[in-house]
Specification:
Distance between the termini: 20 Å
CATH class: Alpha Beta
Order of helices and strands: EHEHEHEEHH
Oligomer: single chain
Shape: globular
Largest sheet: 5 strands, antiparallel
Radius of gyration: 15 Å
CATH architecture: 2-Layer Sandwich
Number of domains: 1
Number of strands: 5
CATH topology: TATA-Binding Protein
Structural class: alpha+beta
């Protein structure tokens, strides 16, 4: 599977819009968004580069995973980070195959094909943002 990391030569707001559109094309939606920069400023009066953490989910796939093991809820939603770096915005996606290694061995065996499928979908979304 392709690496789930890219530097997109666009500002964070533009990259944020592009990744959301690319994820939507793959059946994912953004459920949560944490603005790390704003939180650090408000709570700590500390400066931090633009940095967002997105919780994204494909409901049909999430249901399939939860039907296998309800404890998968601990690993949901999928995580995408956006961070301002020199040259644009760094986008990282938590590889579901790596995340699901935290499950019990029997569950892991059942989830492996699903994790591969999700990883491929997330990789396509990231590739679309890179190519945009």
């Amino acid at each position: 599977m392709p690496e789930l990391h890219a530097i997109v030569p666009k500002p964070l707001p533009d990259t944020r819009a592009a990744i959301e559109a690319a994820l939507k094309a793959e059946g994912f939606g953004v459920l949560t968004e944490v603005d790390v920069q704003a939180i650090f400023k408000a709570k700590l009066d500390a400066d931090h580069e633009g940095h967002r953490i997105l919780g994204v989910c494909n409901p049909a796939i999430a249901k399939r995973a939860l039907d296998l093991d309800r404890d998968i809820a601990l690993l949901l939603p999928c995580t995408v980070t956006l961070r301002e770096v020199e040259g644009g915005t760094e986008v990282k996606v938590l590889d579901p195959q790596q995340a699901f290694t935290l499950t019990a061995p029997a569950t892991r065996a059942q989830l492996e094909p699903l994790a591969g499928e999700v990883g491929e979908m997330l990789a396509r979304a990231l590739a679309a943002v890179r190519a945009d």
